[in-house]
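Dear colleague,

Thank you for sharing your sequence with our group. We've completed the structure prediction you requested, and as agreed, I am returning the results in plain text so they can be pasted directly into your records. Please verify that the sequence below matches your submission; if there's any discrepancy, let me know and we will rerun it promptly.
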Amino acid sequence: MKLASLKHGRDGKLILVSRDLTQAVHADDIAPTLQAALDNWATLAPKLAQRYDALNDNQISDAFVFDPNVCDSPLPRAFQWADGSAYVNHVELVRKARGAQMPESFWTDPLMYQGMSDGFIGPRDEIELVDDAWGCDFEAELAVVTDDVPMNLSADKAGEHIKLLMLVNDVSLRNLIPGELAKGFGFFQSKPASAFSPVAVTPDELGDHWRDHKVHLPMHVTLNSEWFGSPEAGVDMTFDFAELVAHVAKSRHVSAGTIIGSGTVSNTDRSKGSCCLAEKRMLEIIDQGEAKTPFMTFGDSVTIDMRDGQDASIFGAIEQTVTRYVAK
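Please find the predicted structure tokens below.
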């Protein structure tokens, strides 16, 4: 299935979206919101799937044109958003950029932080920024959404609790990070609201591209309409999504609707480009002695997308422009 949320109140209004992302149908009579669907997934998913099949078979009389511009993130807010760093190559490069050592444990134990989840940015909404001196960066990632996960579940079992996948733009304010981390208490102001793709999909929608709890497709990123990178998401992923889910559940029960991110997709093959500015800047320092690429400023735009074997968008693209925040 492919599910999305129309902008409506704080938690959106649930719709189903056709496989080719052209048509949609309301589903709020089955579950008013995506969170409500996840809370009762075992009961409601078959009903949603039946309507989804009818939509794709052109058997829905009240279908309407799907417009990602009127969508919020599939979960406009979530009880929990935990973002990992499964691509350790990326972690290593970014830590080098701020002169931080790379502990060996990063290769054996996932790195993760808990991000802001009380309100996400819509996939086509602006990234509001008070000061562009903060060093605004995009980070193109994948994320999974779980149902209820019991505490201390093994990775072998954790994968069964992955119900949906989405794309992510994990917005980072790079120039605020060093000062925050120096306090020894983690990210906070340097990690504002993230954005997710217009559509969340069930793993079966990816076919053979979903295996070993990884997505084996490239992540496409453009900056100001120019190619920036297309790293393979299934390559160089040190920890798969089942391992990330198990990591979150190690010491706690995890509630339905929890979002768990992969961290920035990154390949050791530099010809694939990058999924964030910080990584590209570090590679420039290594190759040229200094960073050449600036962080985003007002008016800059980023597009994040993932396409199938027929070059069709799977999740719909995240398309965002940085704008100056003006208090209302």
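Summary note from our side: The longest helix spans residues 41-56.

Kind regards,
the structure core
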